[in-house]
Amino acid sequence: MKAIVLSKQNGISALLLEDGTTEYRKTNAEIGSRINVEDTAGSKKISKLSKWAATAAAAAVMVLGGGYYTTAMAVSYVSVDVNPSIEYSLNRLDHVIEARALNE
Fold first, then answer.
1. What letter does residue 74 receive in the DSSP assignment?
2. Phi, psi of 28 (to 5 degrees)
3. Residue 3: partners with Cβ closer than 8 Å, 6 or more residues away
């Protein structure tokens, strides 16, 4: 795989690879030069694993966050004006999540 040297500091070069990713490796190449780099299979496996883990984490956040949005947030209020007056907080499923007295 070919790469372009973007920067170099203390013998470690930042490389822009053909697939658009960047890597840091020890090279003797000058900035702006095109070099051939060996493809390491281990880094690909880690990359795929991290992408899978990030996708799973995002899905878990959406599921858990969506559950809170559906069941714990009040979206409507119903007031019953009798003695004592009561206000009910309802969620999206029309379940009462809070009841409070409006007068003593």
1. -
2. -105, 10
3. 15, 16, 17, 18, 23, 34, 35, 36, 37
Q: Which residue has the tokens 């960047």?
A: 22
End-to-end CA gap in the chain:
77
Report whether the peptide linkage leading into residue 84 is cis, meaning its omega lies within 30 degrees of zero.
yes
Q: Which pLDDT belongs to residue 68?
A: 67
Q: What is the pLDDT of residues 13-44, one digit of tens each?
A: 899 888 888 888 888 888 888 998 886 554 55
The helix (H) or strand (E) run that includes residue 49 is: helix 41-71
CA angle 68–78–64, rounded 5-degree value: 5
